[in-house]
Inverse folding.
């Protein structure tokens, strides 16, 4: 925690859309008159049929039902493209910066329009209709944005799977979404190395049932296996269709996309976002949080495989007619100056990244930053995990040279857009705090019994009423939606995060309080990693917890009990790491594996993760109550093992 305060600079208070007084006024109206506030705000979109009412939502147990602008109709691609053509057809919509610094492309709104319409016609040609799901497994190339927008053009629902997921993870997501069309590329390219996307997609489809088509973008041109009749080159298909595809009329509450994300239990769940409220919220938060003005060059370094890429590379910026930069590569290739070189190359003015990247570049040394100019930068952003004050100060002083406010934005896949964040012209900054809620967002803290906490307090972060960007359901499982988010504290949306509120009413996210961990800003369920581990023939039982990791924020700590007669050695550890990478993907690689003859369990057989977390954190003095353990000796053994290993390391 840091007690420093950075007041809003005078020029920001003057030129930003929202200053402190306007924030107070608008926020007050947004919560006292949500209907009026959002009815007005909804006008920022272009509707085919206007809505007659903004809000119709209920968080009541057994009847969670969230609808916004429900009788309105619109088309997302028309909002992100067509309506800009008259005024900014020749303005660059997307700047694409390749993995290789010599490869780049700029795409104007007019070009985007042509390419998206043609792409949409290819989908139509292969039978994709309104409401059908399309799985997208692409690298960070412009075709990813074309594919998303092409789906929205015809009302198809996209499900993007991050390229770092394994064939098995991809297969599960294709099957759950029941997609019959999969869009991928021959290969991706990251840090100079190819990523075998088509090969992974082939392996995934080999295990899927039903008729599928695979549309393949030629990215690297290296040879790939081909299944005639199923596989289609996108560039060939594009030649066979017309360049005109009028936008479908879509209901505000029709689904826009499904995005799978990890929870505390079971398989990843398909978070569903709908059309009107989501787009409005993404667009409005993008404009005000980043204070986006015409002429800004805006760069969010996320991948479109995550929600940040959906809302803040594609939908928010394009709905606002912005210029958005899309980066294919990694922050450290060809050198750890890459981010800053790209900032200079394209004169980026707004830069939005994750604490894990900031920490790793901070570790690479100031010289790598200082050899760039960065004079174009005026605002910095952070997302994905709590940012530690040291990293914040470095980002502020070294990257931003003390002249760029930092917006530390707290939100989630389920929230659709930014929920708690400074507005740069309105909010004094405190390093490490997400500060204050966005318009219409009513955060609150509750204790474990669900009692609301007032004033300065620490507790579980809940949101008291609906906002337009909120997810509406879990795909095909509304019951799980209600149970996951609305049953812990009935009548409130529970975020799964812990949080502190200080005397100034500033919010400080402390991290997840459930069995979700956040590794390099990637969200992961410990249950998923456990289930991958126990599927290994030598593993009897596994318990996975997060532990503090200098660069990643949290690392993956695995306690493993082997089946009788098996020996835990370094060879088996390597084998287990490879196994998890195969099952889930490289992003789930275990950082530490500890073999143990037993795990701490209650007498009813429940693993006491609280104790395992403390041991992983080396916090042996705070194990809490161990009297309910079936066999307390297990804990001593785990601690001795952990200490021995640290001694050896
Ligand atoms: C964490 C990413 C602290 C949090 C947009 C949340 C953060 C989870 C912040 C959602 C932040 C995200 N400060 N923690 N600024 N932003 N988180 O769904 O634990 O991938 O619940 O969405 O990331 O991760 P998700």
């Amino acid at each position: 925690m840091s007690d420093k305060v950075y007041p809003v600079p005078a020029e920001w208070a003057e030129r930003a859309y929202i200053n402190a007084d306007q924030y107070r006024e608008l926020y007050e109206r947004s919560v006292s008159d949500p209907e009026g506030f959002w009815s007005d705000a909804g006008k920022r979109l272009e509707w085919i049929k206007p809505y007659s009412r903004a809000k119709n939502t209920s968080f009541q147990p057994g009847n969670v039902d969230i609808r916004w602008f429900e009788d309105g109709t619109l088309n997302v691609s028309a909002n992100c493209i067509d309506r800009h053509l008259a005024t900014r057809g020749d303005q660059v919509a997307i700047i694409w910066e390749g993995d290789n610094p010599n490869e780049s492309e700029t795409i104007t709104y007019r070009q985007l329009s042509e390419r998206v319409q043609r792409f949409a016609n290819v989908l139509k040609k292969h039978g994709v209709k309104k409401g059908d799901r399309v799985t997208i497994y692409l690298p960070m190339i412009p075709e990813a944005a074309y594919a998303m927008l092409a789906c929205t053009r015809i009302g198809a629902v996209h499900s993007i799977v991050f390229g770092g997921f394994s064939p098995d993870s991809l297969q599960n997501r294709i099957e759950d979404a029941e997609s019959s069309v999969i869009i991928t590329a021959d290969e991706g390219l990251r840090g100079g190395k190819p990523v075998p996307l088509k090969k992974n997609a082939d392996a995934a489809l080999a295990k899927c049932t039903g008729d599928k088509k695979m549309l393949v973008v030629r990215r690297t041109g290296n040879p790939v296996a081909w299944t005639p009749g199923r596989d289609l080159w996108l560039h060939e298909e594009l030649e066979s269709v017309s360049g005109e595809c009028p936008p479908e009329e879509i209901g505000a509450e029709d689904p826009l996309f499904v995005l799978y994300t990890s929870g505390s239990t079971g398989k990843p769940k398909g978070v569903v976002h709908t059309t009107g409220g989501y787009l409005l919220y993404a667009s409005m938060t993008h404009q005000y949080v980043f204070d986006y003005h015409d002429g800004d060059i805006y760069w969010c370094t996320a991948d479109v495989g995550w929600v940040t890429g959906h809302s803040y590379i594609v939908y928010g910026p394009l709905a606002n007619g912005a210029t958005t930069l899309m980066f294919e590569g990694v922050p450290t290739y060809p050198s750890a100056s890459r981010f800053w070189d790209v900032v200079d190359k394209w004169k980026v003015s707004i830069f939005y990244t994750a604490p894990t990247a900031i920490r790793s570049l901070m570790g690479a040394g100031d010289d790598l930053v200082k050899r760039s100019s960065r004079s174009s930068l005026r605002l910095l952003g952070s997302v994905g995990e709590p940012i530690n004050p040291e990293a914040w100060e470095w980002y502020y002083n070294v990257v931003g040279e003390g002249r760029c406010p930092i917006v530390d934005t707290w939100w989630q896949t389920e929230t659709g857009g930014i929920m708690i964040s400074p507005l740069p012209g309105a909010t004094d900054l405190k390093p490490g705090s997400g500060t204050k809620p966005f318009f219409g967002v009513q955060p609150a803290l509750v204790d474990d019994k669900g009692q609301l906490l007032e004033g300065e307090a620490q507790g579980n972060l809940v949101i008291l009423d609906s906002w337009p960007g909120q997810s509406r359901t879990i795909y095909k499982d509304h019951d799980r939606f209600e149970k996951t988010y609305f049953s812990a504290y009935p009548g409130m949306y529970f975020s799964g995060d812990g949080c502190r509120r200080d005397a100034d009413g500033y919010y400080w996210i402390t991290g997840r309080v459930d069995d979700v961990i956040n590794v390099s800003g990637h969200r992961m369920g410990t249950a998923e990693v456990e289930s991958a581990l126990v599927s290994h023939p030598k593993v009897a039982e596994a318990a996975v917890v997060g532990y503090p990791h200098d660069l990643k924020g949290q690392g993956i700590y695995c306690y493993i009990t082997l089946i009788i007669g098996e020996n835990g050695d370094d060879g088996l550890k390597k084998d287990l790491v490879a196994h998890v990478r195969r099952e889930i993907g490289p992003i789930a690689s275990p950082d530490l594996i500890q073999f143990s003859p037993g795990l701490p369990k209650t007498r009813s057989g429940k693993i006491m993760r609280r104790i395992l977390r403390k041991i992983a954190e080396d916090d042996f003095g705070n194990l809490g109550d161990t009297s309910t353990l079936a066999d307390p000796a297990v804990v001593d053994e785990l601690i001795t093992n952990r200490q021995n290993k640290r001694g050896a390391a």
